[in-house]
Amino acid sequence: MRVKVVNNYEILSKEAESVFLEAIKLKEKPIFGLATGSTPIGLYKNLVNSFNEGKISFKDAKTFNLDEYIGLSKEDTRNYKSFMNENLFSKVDIDLKNTFFPDVYNKDLKQSCLSYSKLLSNYKRDIQILGLGENGHIAFNEPGTEFNSKTHIVKLTESTIKANSRFFKSLEETPSSAITMGIEEILNAHLILLLVAGEKKKEALKILLDGKITIECPASALLNNPNLIIICDKEAYPYKE
Ligand code: GLP
Asked: Domain residues of the chain, as ranges?
């Protein structure tokens, strides 16, 4: 595990971009695991700039997103597919056919989970981008999720619904369930890049940095992948430097 503590979000996003570009440098057909949330937005902006400068192409890339809300319409701009389109896909040369999400519009959601798992098992990610939930969740794997979990349907915890409600008009309107990639599948990447910003993440990050592996902090499962890089800002870092 490598931990990098930086002064602010701008540097965090710059560092994240460097790790990303390095990880895919020699890959002809890179495979990306992508995350939503506020934290990776700066990274995606930088990747768009890199693309505009001709430093990177997504032409032959495949992407797999971590999760998707259940209950929002396809057109709803708050679903995670729209988020990715807005922040990255519509601004680079990726073929949308090569961008994958759990299918939350299938009548049989259990089948969707199985199909996504099957797909993921064929594509080990070159780099998996991750954010961190305030309660230590990764993707939508809430505390208590087994580390050998595969793609599954989740009922979101109150704390997660509350945190996500900032994108909705009210708590009631905020989705309370989702399909998420499982922890075992998240770990199936050559490199994991965990981005952590802000005071609210301090407690969860501390469990991880203390090296305590517990299902009460899903992110601590990441310690089982030796190729883990954590970039955090000063606010999120739980120790004195
Ligand atoms: C949601 C997403 C996670 C993300 C988390 C933190 O729960 N499903 O993938 O890591 O939010 O988001 P933020 O980066 O906005 O704090």
From this structure: 2-214
Rounded distance from Cα 193 to ligand 1 centre (Å): 14
pLDDT in tens, 92-138: 999 999 999 999 999 999 999 999 999 999 999 999 999 999 999 99
Q: Does 65 qualify as catalytic in the annotation? A: no
**CATH number of 2-214: 3.30.930.10, 3.40.50.1980, 3.40.50.1360, 3.40.30.10?**
3.40.50.1360
By three-state DSSP, how is residue 230 classified? strand
pTM of the model: 0.97
Residue with CA closest to ligand 1 atom 1? 37
* Residue nearest to ligand 1 atom 13, measured at CA: 37
For ligand 1, say whether the CB of 42 is within 6 Å of any of its atoms.
no
Is 137 designated active site? yes
Interval 172-194: pLDDT, tens: 999 999 999 999 999 999 999 99
